[in-house]
Design a protein that fits this description.
Blueprint: E1 3-14, E2 17-28, E3 32-36, H1 43-50, E4 56-63, E5 66-67, H2 73-78, E6 81-84, H3 96-102, H4 116-122, H5 124-128, H6 139-151, E7 157-161, H7 169-184, E8 189-194, H8 197-203, E9 206-211, E10 214-220, H9 221-226, H10 228-235
Parallel strand pairs: 3-8, 3-9, 6-7, 7-8
Antiparallel strand pairs: 1-2, 1-4, 4-5, 9-10
């Protein structure tokens, strides 16, 4: 199985403040991987480095063997990444439908691409609110809209940064269910940034834990659930 995304000894941060210290990780085609850790440990900085939103100061990031370390973010997105950023960042003054069609594309000529109808089937709440402005939606509905908007780009790879942060438990479970039973089973490669090990063990194939800008643990779901000491030390559970 080939690496879809590979980070090698990546360093970076914000201005003169270094946040990442030699990050090594890879995600294979069709694989679901998590990056976990407490707040402020460098997870979002890693995602921003992948997306070209934060320049790296060392190492390399590759997509399918091609270095993307010095590409602009819009060029990186066109290589097939669907990005669901922390805080959702939907277009507040567009309707649900307008948000979804604003990013619609099928750059890779998929035979069965994500369409407006398919996204509405996946998230029935969005169909019920199709003409509402995004700013009037609940936090959970905005998160569904952000995921649907990313799917409408028909990505080969998705990044979900804290997709369930601050959501009610029932909505959180609904989104996790969709990740596990709709996206993962369809073969969608995903990097999920989260901090709920039990839920992530259901969804993902492999897991990385980050502490102060370094990857301090890697393993599969069985190893994660068996490592109560690791969870307590790095995730605070």
């Amino acid at each position: 199985m080939s690496n879809w995304l590979k980070l090698t000894e990546v360093t970076g941060g914000y201005g003169t403040s270094q946040v990442l210290f030699g990050v090594d990780m890879h995600i294979d085609t069709g694989e679901v991987v998590t990056l976990m850790g407490r707040n402020g440990m460098g997870k979002t900085t890693t995602v921003r480095a992948i997306m070209g939103l934060n320049p790296i100061t060392g190492g390399d990031i590759q997509i399918l063997g091609q270095s993307i370390s010095h590409l602009k973010s819009h060029h990186i997105a066109k290589l097939g990444i669907g990005y669901v950023p922390e805080g959702r960042q939907v277009f507040p003054n567009l309707t649900v439908t307008e948000n979804l069609i604003a990013t619609a594309a099928n750059r890779f000529g998929l035979d069965a691409p994500w369409t407006l109808e398919k996204v509405m089937d996946l998230f029935p709440r969005l169909r019920e609110r199709d003409t509402q402005y995004a700013r009037t939606l609940s936090g959970g509905e905005q998160q569904m809209l952000a995921i649907g908007r990313a799917l409408m780009t028909n990505p080969q790879f998705m990044i979900l940064d804290e997709a369930t942060e601050g959501l009610a438990p029932l909505i959180r479970e609904e989104i996790w269910h969709i990740l596990e039973h709709n996206l993962k089973e369809s073969g969608q490669a995903i990097l999920v940034i989260d901090k709920h090990p039990k839920a992530m063990a259901r969804i993902a194939d492999r897991h990385f834990i980050m502490e102060k800008g370094r990857l301090v643990w890697e393993g599969d779901s069985e190893a994660l659930l068996a490592s109560a000491d690791v969870q307590e030390r790095y995730l605070g559970v």
